[in-house]
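quick one, 191 residues, struct below
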Amino acid sequence: MTIRPLRKRDLDIMSGWEVFEDPLYRLFDWPRRGAVENGLWYADLVRDRRRVYYAVDDEWQTVIGRISLREIRGRESARLGIGFGAPYVSQGYGSEALRLFLRYYFVRLGFQRMVLDVAAINVRAVRCYERCGFERTGSSYQPLPWNADTLFLEEEPYRYLRKYVRNDGWRDLALAYDMVLERKDWLALQR
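---
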């Protein structure tokens, strides 16, 4: 696995990823954009020093995911974003990429803390973050994408997740956990 700076052509590949079959994870699909939209988005990204994006390649140099840092505060902290294409989920790539990136983040870049927010309904991601040492520090409701279809939450296999989603009158909001991993705690886990 390789984590490297994101290139414009990676966005075109990511826009072609299959959508998730599971309606729960469709909420986290990479947006479908054309080449022009990707070009504009990428141009904006390279100008914005508050965000940094990385591509995650598998052992065959296929782009399988992305990692981002935003809300960068010197070397104190940054907010993590991570996502993988549907064909690459549930194969251990996310955990492996996160562990590899945490070493780079804390050792090479010298950050003191990593923060993130994760949708509570993304139970798989919550477990991954907790296994890597992240701790919950709070929660808030955040808007789901405007085109998010949450009707699947009425179906039996998903009903237990309904408690994490509410509507504020004009949009669906999902409970998100705020999580943090301190450098000192990450170092202690490496021993």
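The chain has one domain: 2-189.
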